[in-house]
């Protein structure tokens, strides 16, 4: 008895933060092509997606879905490497699987194959779809906690503010170091504390001294406690926003910084 050759659309997908090895479109496509050659599956087309899988509102997927819906029988399969390439939303994935079935099309992962006729497969599908998202959330949470811990130790994280440069301490940990513009920043604070100049006039004077800065940026500068040696820690859960003593060298004294805030 002659076995009809199955036909498939290939669906490699990445999002902008998944360009690492193992997730690239070319790698996924190569793996899918070799699988089809081995399994004697005819490749009808390839839809390469660079979009998040939180919903199915993706340009290439919608193009593929449109072709499938208007050309019943054009393919039997939509193949992808892993289930999180298809979706990262369990409810949306179940709904789309049901919709594709109406077109006699089976979505299938070549690395995590499931027989959706078996009820228990739904449990495995949920695991495959949610595990990457849980891992991402855990990494994000670990990063958040790590950053808060570093700030509580007095370390400034991110691009150095005007008057400082990013450096490293003896333990190769981030450290703010005053640069050649620190004296101009200190002068600005001293002049503001006198209450003689309005802030925009003083900003223009600072520009003339060599620091090109806009209004909102200058306003943020003179209210930033980092210049008196403090690190601001934002509120989180039951912990109120507060400042801690930084390990970097302050450009102005705490008294001068407070005097400027009083002038405002």
UniProtKB/TrEMBL annotation:
Domain Recombinase: 161-264
Pfam family, one: Recombinase
Signal peptide: none
Listed SMART domains: Resolvase
InterPro entries per record: DNA_bind_recomb_sf, DNA_bind_recombinase_dom, Resolv_N, Resolvase-like_N_sf, SSR_resolvase
Resolvase/invertase-type recombinase catalytic domain segment(s): 7-154
PANTHER family: DNA RECOMBINASE-RELATED, DNA-INVERTASE FROM LAMBDOID PROPHAGE
Protein name per UniProt: Recombinase family protein
